[in-house]
Amino acid sequence: MAIFELNDQNFHTETSSGTVLVDFWAPWCGPCKMIAPVLEEMDQEMGSKVRIGKINVDLNPDTASQFGVMSIPTLLLFKEGQVVEKVTGFQPKERLMNLINPHL
Question: CA 4, CA 22: separation in Å to the nearest integer?
Fold first, then answer.
């Protein structure tokens, strides 16, 4: 699997089924740059169990607003279209894995 880009148009379609971790980010955000390699590593390790998507909040303000994203990075975990977990700020890989695993 590969990390995929989300936008205001495809967001609900892409998060409506399965388990999807969404990274709300922006290119100017330092902690967003720090978490990117962590997400890449998780994507390779988890394969098809979890899909990981990224949405640029500067380009897609409607979706960020809809989910109350006030600071970035914010990660939302969707299961069958519903938000089941939310964390804000840089998180180590172990913390993210502990967040995801109960929902698999």
Answer: 9
pLDDT digits (tens, 9 = 90+) for 20-65: 999 999 999 999 999 999 999 999 999 899 999 999 999 999 999 9
Query: 32, 35, 52, 76: which is the annotated catalytic residue?
Result: 32
Instruction: Identify the DSSP state of 71.
Output: S
Q: Is 29 an active-site residue? A: yes
Catalytic residue among 29, 50, 72, 100: 29
Phi and psi torsions of 83, nearest 5°: -75, 125
Residue ranges and CATH numbers for the domains of the chain are 4-103 (3.40.30.10)
- Alpha-carbon distance of 94 to 16, in angstroms, equals 26
pTM for the full predicted model: 0.96
Average pLDDT estimate for 11-16: 97
